[in-house]
Amino acid sequence: MTQERKLRWGILGSASIAIRSVIPGIQQSSLNEVTALASRTLDKAEQTATDLGIPKAYGSYEELLADASIDAVYIPLPNHLHYEWTLRAAEAGKHILCEKPIALNAAQAEEMAAAASKAGVHLAEAFMYRHHPRYEQIRDIIASGEIGDVRGIHSTFTFNSSGSDGNVRFRKDWGGGSLYDIGCYSISAARMLLGKEPSAATVIAMFSPQHGEVDMMASGLLEFDDHIGVTFDSGMWAAFRNTLEVLGTEGIIEVPSAYVSPGDERSNFFVTVGDNRREVQVATLNQYAAQADAFARTVLNGETPLYDAEDAVRNMRVLDACLKSAEERQRITL
Protein backbone atom coordinates (compact mmCIF):
# COMPACT_ATOMS: atom_id res chain seq x y z
CA MET A 1 0.00 0.00 0.00
CA THR A 2 1.40 3.40 -0.99
CA GLN A 3 1.35 6.15 1.59
CA GLU A 4 -0.84 9.13 0.74
CA ARG A 5 1.25 12.11 -0.26
CA LYS A 6 1.48 14.83 2.36
CA LEU A 7 1.57 18.57 1.84
CA ARG A 8 5.06 19.84 2.62
CA TRP A 9 5.16 23.05 4.64
CA GLY A 10 7.70 25.79 5.20
CA ILE A 11 7.28 28.25 8.06
CA LEU A 12 8.24 31.91 7.56
CA GLY A 13 9.38 33.05 10.98
CA SER A 14 9.38 31.74 14.52
CA ALA A 15 6.51 33.69 16.08
CA SER A 16 5.06 32.32 19.30
CA ILE A 17 1.74 31.39 17.64
CA ALA A 18 3.68 29.24 15.17
CA ILE A 19 5.80 27.53 17.82
CA ARG A 20 3.03 27.02 20.39
CA SER A 21 0.10 26.12 18.20
CA VAL A 22 0.30 26.06 14.41
CA ILE A 23 3.44 23.99 13.85
CA PRO A 24 2.38 21.32 16.40
CA GLY A 25 -1.07 21.33 14.78
CA ILE A 26 0.37 20.74 11.31
CA GLN A 27 2.60 17.99 12.71
CA GLN A 28 -0.37 16.29 14.37
CA SER A 29 -2.53 16.46 11.24
CA SER A 30 -3.03 13.60 8.80
CA LEU A 31 -2.17 15.18 5.45
CA ASN A 32 0.71 17.51 6.24
CA GLU A 33 4.33 17.67 7.33
CA VAL A 34 6.59 20.58 8.28
CA THR A 35 9.83 20.26 6.34
CA ALA A 36 11.50 23.65 6.76
CA LEU A 37 11.57 26.79 8.89
CA ALA A 38 13.15 30.17 8.14
CA SER A 39 14.11 32.95 10.50
CA ARG A 40 16.03 36.20 10.14
CA THR A 41 19.17 34.48 11.44
CA LEU A 42 20.33 30.97 10.69
CA ASP A 43 21.21 30.29 14.34
CA LYS A 44 17.66 31.03 15.47
CA ALA A 45 16.17 29.02 12.62
CA GLU A 46 18.38 26.02 13.38
CA GLN A 47 17.60 26.11 17.10
CA THR A 48 13.85 26.39 16.54
CA ALA A 49 13.90 23.68 13.88
CA THR A 50 15.84 21.35 16.20
CA ASP A 51 13.46 22.01 19.08
CA LEU A 52 10.42 21.21 16.91
CA GLY A 53 11.87 18.33 14.90
CA ILE A 54 11.86 20.19 11.57
CA PRO A 55 14.43 18.81 9.08
CA LYS A 56 15.61 21.99 7.36
CA ALA A 57 16.43 25.51 8.56
CA TYR A 58 17.05 28.66 6.54
CA GLY A 59 18.56 31.98 7.59
CA SER A 60 16.27 34.00 5.31
CA TYR A 61 12.71 33.83 4.04
CA GLU A 62 13.96 34.12 0.45
CA GLU A 63 15.95 30.88 0.78
CA LEU A 64 12.91 29.00 2.00
CA LEU A 65 10.75 30.30 -0.87
CA ALA A 66 13.43 29.13 -3.31
CA ASP A 67 13.18 25.55 -2.01
CA ALA A 68 11.32 23.68 -4.75
CA SER A 69 10.42 20.82 -2.40
CA ILE A 70 8.11 23.03 -0.31
CA ASP A 71 4.46 23.10 -1.39
CA ALA A 72 2.96 25.58 1.06
CA VAL A 73 4.04 28.25 3.52
CA TYR A 74 2.57 29.51 6.75
CA ILE A 75 3.09 33.22 7.42
CA PRO A 76 2.94 34.18 11.13
CA LEU A 77 4.89 37.41 10.66
CA PRO A 78 3.77 40.76 12.14
CA ASN A 79 0.66 42.11 10.43
CA HIS A 80 2.41 44.71 8.28
CA LEU A 81 4.50 41.97 6.61
CA HIS A 82 1.60 39.75 5.53
CA TYR A 83 1.08 41.64 2.29
CA GLU A 84 4.70 41.58 1.09
CA TRP A 85 5.43 37.96 1.92
CA THR A 86 2.13 36.65 0.61
CA LEU A 87 2.87 38.31 -2.73
CA ARG A 88 6.39 36.90 -2.74
CA ALA A 89 5.19 33.43 -1.77
CA ALA A 90 2.56 33.45 -4.53
CA GLU A 91 5.21 34.52 -7.03
CA ALA A 92 7.30 31.55 -5.87
CA GLY A 93 4.38 29.22 -6.53
CA LYS A 94 3.68 28.36 -2.90
CA HIS A 95 0.24 27.84 -1.41
CA ILE A 96 -0.26 30.21 1.51
CA LEU A 97 -1.82 30.08 4.95
CA CYS A 98 -1.52 33.63 6.28
CA GLU A 99 -2.09 34.56 9.88
CA LYS A 100 -5.00 36.87 10.66
CA PRO A 101 -5.67 39.64 9.90
CA ILE A 102 -4.68 38.81 6.36
CA ALA A 103 -3.60 42.40 5.63
CA LEU A 104 -3.69 45.95 6.93
CA ASN A 105 -6.66 46.88 4.75
CA ALA A 106 -9.03 45.47 2.16
CA ALA A 107 -7.09 46.96 -0.76
CA GLN A 108 -4.03 44.94 0.23
CA ALA A 109 -6.16 41.83 0.71
CA GLU A 110 -7.62 42.22 -2.77
CA GLU A 111 -4.12 42.40 -4.27
CA MET A 112 -3.08 39.31 -2.32
CA ALA A 113 -6.13 37.36 -3.49
CA ALA A 114 -5.50 38.43 -7.10
CA ALA A 115 -1.83 37.43 -6.88
CA ALA A 116 -2.74 33.99 -5.53
CA SER A 117 -5.35 33.50 -8.24
CA LYS A 118 -2.89 34.52 -10.95
CA ALA A 119 -0.26 32.12 -9.60
CA GLY A 120 -2.78 29.30 -9.24
CA VAL A 121 -2.14 28.85 -5.52
CA HIS A 122 -4.50 28.53 -2.58
CA LEU A 123 -4.55 31.46 -0.14
CA ALA A 124 -6.36 31.16 3.18
CA GLU A 125 -6.59 33.25 6.34
CA ALA A 126 -5.65 31.37 9.52
CA PHE A 127 -8.90 31.47 11.48
CA MET A 128 -8.39 28.05 13.02
CA TYR A 129 -11.55 28.10 15.18
CA ARG A 130 -13.96 27.78 12.26
CA HIS A 131 -12.48 24.43 11.22
CA HIS A 132 -13.68 22.84 14.46
CA PRO A 133 -16.77 20.76 13.58
CA ARG A 134 -18.72 22.34 16.46
CA TYR A 135 -19.38 25.37 14.26
CA GLU A 136 -21.07 23.16 11.69
CA GLN A 137 -23.18 21.81 14.57
CA ILE A 138 -24.03 25.36 15.65
CA ARG A 139 -25.00 26.38 12.11
CA ASP A 140 -27.18 23.27 11.84
CA ILE A 141 -28.98 24.13 15.10
CA ILE A 142 -29.62 27.68 13.88
CA ALA A 143 -30.88 26.38 10.51
CA SER A 144 -33.16 23.84 12.22
CA GLY A 145 -35.13 26.62 13.90
CA GLU A 146 -34.61 25.16 17.38
CA ILE A 147 -33.76 28.57 18.86
CA GLY A 148 -36.21 30.38 16.57
CA ASP A 149 -35.25 33.42 14.52
CA VAL A 150 -31.86 34.91 15.32
CA ARG A 151 -32.25 38.25 17.05
CA GLY A 152 -28.64 39.00 17.95
CA ILE A 153 -25.11 37.73 18.49
CA HIS A 154 -22.65 38.77 21.19
CA SER A 155 -18.98 37.85 20.95
CA THR A 156 -16.04 38.55 23.24
CA PHE A 157 -12.30 38.06 22.90
CA THR A 158 -10.26 39.88 25.52
CA PHE A 159 -7.04 39.37 27.46
CA ASN A 160 -4.57 41.51 29.38
CA SER A 161 -1.15 41.96 27.78
CA SER A 162 -0.81 45.60 28.81
CA GLY A 163 2.35 45.01 30.82
CA SER A 164 4.37 43.19 28.17
CA ASP A 165 7.49 44.89 26.78
CA GLY A 166 8.33 45.10 23.08
CA ASN A 167 4.97 43.67 22.02
CA VAL A 168 4.47 44.01 18.25
CA ARG A 169 0.75 44.47 18.95
CA PHE A 170 1.61 47.90 20.39
CA ARG A 171 3.07 49.15 17.07
CA LYS A 172 0.39 51.14 15.25
CA ASP A 173 2.41 51.20 12.01
CA TRP A 174 2.73 47.41 12.19
CA GLY A 175 -1.01 46.84 12.43
CA GLY A 176 -1.19 46.68 16.21
CA GLY A 177 -4.27 46.95 18.37
CA SER A 178 -7.11 44.75 19.58
CA LEU A 179 -9.33 45.10 16.51
CA TYR A 180 -6.62 43.81 14.19
CA ASP A 181 -5.51 41.12 16.61
CA ILE A 182 -8.74 39.67 18.00
CA GLY A 183 -11.70 41.81 16.93
CA CYS A 184 -11.33 40.14 13.56
CA TYR A 185 -12.48 36.86 15.15
CA SER A 186 -15.82 38.29 16.21
CA ILE A 187 -16.32 39.80 12.76
CA SER A 188 -15.49 36.49 11.12
CA ALA A 189 -17.78 34.50 13.41
CA ALA A 190 -20.76 36.79 12.87
CA ARG A 191 -20.39 36.66 9.09
CA MET A 192 -19.98 32.88 9.19
CA LEU A 193 -22.98 32.17 11.40
CA LEU A 194 -25.35 34.61 9.66
CA GLY A 195 -24.10 33.82 6.15
CA LYS A 196 -24.23 37.45 5.10
CA GLU A 197 -22.32 40.73 5.28
CA PRO A 198 -23.04 43.66 7.62
CA SER A 199 -24.28 46.97 6.28
CA ALA A 200 -22.75 49.25 8.93
CA ALA A 201 -20.32 49.33 11.84
CA THR A 202 -20.07 51.47 14.96
CA VAL A 203 -17.11 51.05 17.31
CA ILE A 204 -15.84 52.88 20.37
CA ALA A 205 -12.22 52.22 21.32
CA MET A 206 -9.66 53.15 23.93
CA PHE A 207 -6.47 54.28 22.19
CA SER A 208 -3.68 54.09 24.75
CA PRO A 209 -0.73 56.51 24.79
CA GLN A 210 1.10 53.95 26.93
CA HIS A 211 0.88 51.43 24.12
CA GLY A 212 1.74 53.33 20.97
CA GLU A 213 -1.78 54.76 20.58
CA VAL A 214 -3.19 51.41 19.48
CA ASP A 215 -6.70 50.41 20.51
CA MET A 216 -6.26 48.40 23.70
CA MET A 217 -10.03 47.93 24.05
CA ALA A 218 -12.85 48.20 21.54
CA SER A 219 -16.59 47.55 21.68
CA GLY A 220 -18.60 47.40 18.50
CA LEU A 221 -21.95 47.00 16.84
CA LEU A 222 -22.34 45.44 13.39
CA GLU A 223 -25.69 45.92 11.63
CA PHE A 224 -27.03 43.06 9.52
CA ASP A 225 -30.21 42.60 7.50
CA ASP A 226 -33.41 41.59 9.30
CA HIS A 227 -32.59 44.09 12.07
CA ILE A 228 -29.94 41.79 13.55
CA GLY A 229 -27.28 43.47 15.66
CA VAL A 230 -23.96 41.82 16.43
CA THR A 231 -22.15 43.27 19.44
CA PHE A 232 -18.58 42.45 20.35
CA ASP A 233 -15.70 43.29 22.67
CA SER A 234 -12.05 43.01 21.74
CA GLY A 235 -9.41 43.91 24.28
CA MET A 236 -5.75 43.58 25.15
CA TRP A 237 -6.16 45.39 28.49
CA ALA A 238 -9.02 43.48 30.08
CA ALA A 239 -9.73 40.18 31.83
CA PHE A 240 -9.66 37.07 29.67
CA ARG A 241 -12.82 36.04 27.84
CA ASN A 242 -13.53 34.31 24.54
CA THR A 243 -17.24 33.68 24.36
CA LEU A 244 -20.03 33.60 21.80
CA GLU A 245 -23.78 33.83 22.33
CA VAL A 246 -26.45 33.48 19.66
CA LEU A 247 -29.81 34.82 20.82
CA GLY A 248 -32.97 33.55 19.16
CA THR A 249 -36.66 34.14 19.67
CA GLU A 250 -37.05 30.74 21.34
CA GLY A 251 -33.62 29.95 22.74
CA ILE A 252 -29.93 30.70 23.17
CA ILE A 253 -26.68 29.06 22.04
CA GLU A 254 -23.73 29.72 24.37
CA VAL A 255 -20.12 28.88 23.50
CA PRO A 256 -17.97 29.42 26.63
CA SER A 257 -14.66 28.95 24.80
CA ALA A 258 -15.44 30.19 21.32
CA TYR A 259 -12.06 30.78 19.72
CA VAL A 260 -9.32 29.40 21.98
CA SER A 261 -10.54 25.82 22.11
CA PRO A 262 -8.87 23.56 24.71
CA GLY A 263 -9.58 20.52 22.53
CA ASP A 264 -11.50 18.64 25.24
CA GLU A 265 -14.91 18.81 26.95
CA ARG A 266 -14.33 22.51 27.65
CA SER A 267 -15.00 23.02 23.94
CA ASN A 268 -18.61 21.87 24.38
CA PHE A 269 -21.41 24.40 24.00
CA PHE A 270 -24.89 24.83 25.46
CA VAL A 271 -28.37 25.24 24.00
CA THR A 272 -31.18 26.63 26.15
CA VAL A 273 -34.81 26.52 25.00
CA GLY A 274 -37.39 27.41 27.66
CA ASP A 275 -36.46 25.58 30.87
CA ASN A 276 -34.33 23.02 29.07
CA ARG A 277 -30.57 23.60 28.93
CA ARG A 278 -28.51 20.91 27.26
CA GLU A 279 -24.80 20.50 26.78
CA VAL A 280 -23.76 19.60 23.24
CA GLN A 281 -20.77 17.26 23.12
CA VAL A 282 -18.21 18.08 20.45
CA ALA A 283 -15.29 16.21 18.95
CA THR A 284 -12.02 16.16 20.86
CA LEU A 285 -9.47 17.46 18.41
CA ASN A 286 -6.77 20.00 17.66
CA GLN A 287 -8.40 22.76 15.61
CA TYR A 288 -5.02 23.79 14.17
CA ALA A 289 -4.63 20.26 12.83
CA ALA A 290 -8.17 20.44 11.41
CA GLN A 291 -7.27 23.71 9.70
CA ALA A 292 -4.14 22.17 8.16
CA ASP A 293 -6.02 19.12 6.88
CA ALA A 294 -8.76 21.28 5.35
CA PHE A 295 -6.06 23.31 3.59
CA ALA A 296 -4.34 20.14 2.36
CA ARG A 297 -7.56 18.64 1.00
CA THR A 298 -8.00 21.74 -1.14
CA VAL A 299 -4.42 21.65 -2.46
CA LEU A 300 -3.94 17.87 -2.81
CA ASN A 301 -7.47 16.72 -3.65
CA GLY A 302 -8.95 19.79 -5.29
CA GLU A 303 -11.72 20.18 -2.70
CA THR A 304 -13.52 23.51 -2.69
CA PRO A 305 -12.26 25.43 0.35
CA LEU A 306 -14.77 26.28 3.06
CA TYR A 307 -13.24 29.75 3.21
CA ASP A 308 -11.38 31.18 0.23
CA ALA A 309 -9.29 34.31 -0.26
CA GLU A 310 -12.37 36.35 -1.14
CA ASP A 311 -13.80 35.60 2.28
CA ALA A 312 -10.65 37.14 3.77
CA VAL A 313 -11.15 40.23 1.62
CA ARG A 314 -14.73 40.60 2.82
CA ASN A 315 -13.69 40.23 6.45
CA MET A 316 -11.05 42.90 5.92
CA ARG A 317 -13.64 45.32 4.52
CA VAL A 318 -15.62 45.04 7.74
CA LEU A 319 -12.47 45.43 9.83
CA ASP A 320 -11.59 48.56 7.85
CA ALA A 321 -15.01 50.01 8.71
CA CYS A 322 -14.59 49.16 12.39
CA LEU A 323 -11.19 50.85 12.54
CA LYS A 324 -12.51 53.91 10.73
CA SER A 325 -15.49 54.12 13.06
CA ALA A 326 -13.27 53.88 16.15
CA GLU A 327 -10.90 56.56 14.88
CA GLU A 328 -13.61 58.97 13.69
CA ARG A 329 -16.18 58.19 16.40
CA GLN A 330 -19.00 57.71 13.90
CA ARG A 331 -21.13 55.06 12.27
CA ILE A 332 -19.63 53.75 9.03
CA THR A 333 -21.73 52.23 6.26
CA LEU A 334 -20.34 49.43 4.12
Strand count, sense and barrel status of the largest sheet are: 9 strands, mixed
Determine the N-to-C terminus distance.
54 Å
Quick one: CATH class of the largest domain?
Answer: Alpha Beta
Question: Can you name the CATH architecture of the largest domain?
Answer: 2-Layer Sandwich
Give the oligomer, counting copies of the same chain as homo and different chains as hetero.
single chain
Helix content: 25-40%
Number of strands: 15
Query: Which strand-content bin applies to the residues?
Result: 25-35%
- Low-confidence segments: none
- How many helices? The count is 9
Q: Trace the largest sheet across and list its strands.
A: 14-13-12-11-7-10-9-8-15
The CATH superfamily of the largest domain is identified as Dihydrodipicolinate Reductase, domain 2
Keywords: Oxidoreductase
Protein name: Dehydrogenase
Organism: Paenibacillus hunanensis
InterPro entries: Gfo/Idh/MocA-like_OxRdtase_N (IPR000683), Gfo/Idh/MocA_domain (IPR050984), GFO_IDH_MocA-like_dom (IPR055170), NAD(P)-bd_dom_sf (IPR036291)
What do you see in this structure?
The chain is of the alpha/beta class and 334 residues long. The protein is built from nine helices and 15 strands. It folds into two domains: 7-127, NAD(P)-binding Rossmann-like Domain (Rossmann fold, 3-Layer(aba) Sandwich); 129-290 and 316-333, Dihydrodipicolinate Reductase, domain 2 (2-Layer Sandwich), CATH 3.30.360.10. It is 35% helix and 28% strand. The strands form two sheets. Strands 14-13-12-11-7-10-9-8-15 form a nine-stranded mixed sheet. It comes from Paenibacillus hunanensis.
